[in-house]
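Let's practice the habit of predicting before peeking. Look at the sequence and jot down your guess about where helices and strands might fall. Then scroll down.
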Amino acid sequence: MSKQKLNIILIIPAILLTIVYQGFSDNSFRNNYQRIIPLDSEIYSLIEFISLESKKSLLSDIKPWSEAEVLNVLSQTDEEDLSEAGKRIYQRIKKLLEKTPLYSEDNFAVDVSIETAIELYFHTAEDESEWQYGYEQRLSVFALPVEVWFNDSFYGYFEPELRESRFLITAEDESGNYTGNISNIPGSVAECAYHFPFRAFISLGGSNWNFQAGRDQLEYGNGESGKLLLSSYSDYYDFMKLKGFVDNISFTWTYVNLESWLTLNEDDGKQRAFVDHVFEIKPFDMLSLYVNESIILYGQNPEIQFVNPLLIYHNLFIRENANSLLTLGFDLNPVSGIKFYGEYALDQFQTALEQDLYGAGVTATPNAYGYMLGVNAAVSGGEGYLSGNLEYVYTSPWLYIRENEQISFIWSQRETTDVLKARVFVKKPLGYLYGPDTIAFSGNIKYSLPGTFSAGLGIDYIIKGENSLETEYQETKEAALLKTPSGTAENTLIFDISGEYQFFTFFSVRANICFLNISNWNHQSGTSFFDFQNVLSFIFRI
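Done guessing? Here is the structure:
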């Protein structure tokens, strides 16, 4: 069966669920809490501060959240027990959740916003390939978010936008010299990104559940420098997600459709997907735990087992068509203001029993895993709060990689660009942004006065071995013995200064200064790269 037919099979139940549920719902849109909070919303950092101060771990690291989930978190916090800064933050969250639509009736509402940003980029190096403020961070020059509420349970979102092509950042002239990209304003239609919208979805739910289908960003797992399981480094995901939650238990099932081009002009018609289910529990106020199993599927005919959220995907034993990943994590808030967290991701592991039964063939299969350990801290200071983070991440040389790239943990997109006058593959890790074969240390400190300004310092040190998502998978004893970092390691030191000031509710200015130093650049021993990078952003939201 073709992947087009499979997509239809998956979409039909979602449409029927929406129609049937709406038929039984006739309440006012003012009781609708299914708005999806975007990942770049300050609500998440504000809730993190309240969680740290009140010594209560957050139940869920599966984002984005619906408005109902935010309200569920707030309902477990006693505002009177918070500091003065905590109370102000609590009230700001509630204010940010308020929405006055442009047009409304009793059970229907529509809102249209205008967002525009002008960014200026300057750096000292001639090479454009090492921008730390890359395409993933750069803002659209113009966006027109449209929101729709219907009854108390349906929400829709559509955001057309004008954004420059990613290929402008590293564009070259006819002589092979970088042309330089000094702003986010496209100079012509040919310089625009054609793959919008990046956010377009429907959301349906109640006070303790949410179903979201469409295109949006996702982040699964804890971590500040990145996520081992599913990161927002990819441009977007096309997915369906069903999440149920109460105060101390949450369950999420997700189906993400992935492109499966074999070449720039050849698609074999087979379905490729990321399927995930995660169970989260908070046995004590200060401790939350989660277990997550995900699988990359390729070329499988549609069967009910792949949409069964309670199945153990690993035990399907279809290695030639799938790759599963087990992720375990915890958040621990032992004292007010401090949270310890960790995550372990297991992609491949050879047990002693397998080695005894199958011998040399098994010992040549590389183990693949990664882990993360970190600590967050926050303390109120004046009308705002001071926060900080320290984090360590390790990924083994073969994490995310398999014999067939179609079952590796890779997000890919065939993109048409008039900047290069060509079709191009864009490939990114589904998980940790630096991919396999990495050791990363990071730390930051930041002072925030919510709604007014923030300023922070950050430092990152990344040791990157030669293995990447493009590395051909090997089953040899030499491959199995590789340790991170493999080969000639590239060492990157990043020192970052950032700040933002909100002059009015509709206008803010953001600045970022970055010092970048790379030794053994591109894994060439003795080579180095240095850059001083600056970004200035003017942001308008109406």
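How did you do? The longest strand covers residues 490-504.
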